[in-house]
Structure formats: C-alpha cells, structure tokens
Amino acid sequence: MAENLTLARPYAEAAFLLAKSGGNLRDWSERLSGLAAVVGNPAMEECIGNPRFTPDSLSKLCVEASGQTLSGEQQNFVRVLVDNQRLGVLPEIAELFDELMNSHDGVKEAMITSAFAMDDATLQALVADIGRKFGCKVAATVTVDPALIGGVRIAVGDEVIDASVRGKLAAMATSLKH
Q: In angstroms, what CA-CA distances link 57 with 14, 53, 79, 91, 94?
C-alpha cells in the first residue's frame, strides 16, 4: 500500500495542478473517484494485466466503463496512466487528490465512530464542534461500532478524541494497574 501511495503521489499532484489551473477541482475529484471505482472492479483488474489489450483499447475501455463524460485533459490523464502502467494506482491517486483538494479548501477529514446511529441534527452539532476545536471546515465520515458501548471516537489527522465508554473503561483499567 505504501508503495502504491508513493507511485500515485506525483500523478495526484499533477492532476491537482491541472484541475486547479482549470478551476474545476470538484469535477476532477468526481471523475477520479468514478475511474477509481472502475479500476477497482475485479473484471477491470484482469483487463489491466492482460497483454492482449493495447494502451489505446485499455484507455478507451476504462473511460467508457466509468460511464462519465471526461474532458480531453482527463482522458489524456487516463492515457498517461495506462502508458506508464500506473492505471492500477488510480484509487490511491483519487484519495491523494481529495486530500490535496481538502487541504487547499481548508477542510480536514474527521473519522467519527459512534456506538449508535446518530440523527442529522446530532451529527451536524458534533461536526460544528469539531470544526470549532480544529479551526477549520470538517468533512466527516461516520461509522457505527456497537463495541464502543456508548459515546464516540473521533480521529482528525493523527489526533484522536476517545469519548467512548469503552475508551473510558480502558483508561480506568490502565490507571488501576499502576
């Protein structure tokens, strides 16, 4: 995985610069996500490794399978990936592109894990609180993990706020041992 991120980084940066200069970051993000989904399909993975596919046919297949209308620059980008045998790292390119875009927009990713499903109002209030704490806009991804027993666990970058019952019990057990 780390090797794929290393391979993907210069392509993500190049795509970001193209998108930024064209003023269409969101469009590129959507297109790259769609292409990443296509490349992650097992049938497409077989095609990528198949020597019977020429670079032209593989590029065309990838673009058509995405079901998206790609700009000339985006089609050329796919072709460069195919020519350099980097089509397989498109999921990592899309992920890195979104990180660059969020950084550019002043948005941080927050991974929120909750013991129970949250209603929209609770989630919006929590995201607003996280935004105030970190002084930025927040894009939240929410998952439910009943093993937390109660409360939430929030990860923003490399900072973790564990306000779950499970986390508090673990902290209490650790303090009792010492």
A: 24, 6, 10, 20, 22
Amino acid at position 151, single letter: G
List the structure tokens of 121.
């109002």
Residue type, 147: A
Read off φ and ψ for residue 69, nearest 5 degrees: -95, 110
Model pLDDT, residue 1 = 56
pTM score: 0.73
> What are the structure tokens assigned to 99, written together?
């990180």
pLDDT value of position 2: 66
What count of residues does the chain have?
A: 178
- Residue 5: the pLDDT is 83
Distances (CA, A) of 109 to 67, 125, 131: 28, 16, 10
Reported as type and span, the H/E element at residue 144 is strand 137-144
Place of tokens 């198949």: 50
Identify the helix (H) or strand (E) that includes residue 99.
Answer: helix 90-105
First to last CA, the chain: 38
Q: Are 152 and 114 in contact (CB under 8 A)?
A: yes
H or E element in which residue 96 lies: helix 90-105
Mean pLDDT for the stretch of residues 20-39:
94
Kindly tell me the sign of the dihedral angle through the C-alpha atoms of 74, 78, 81, 84.
Answer: negative
Whole-angstrom distance, CA of residue 121 vs CA of residue 66: 35
The amino acid occupying position 22 is G
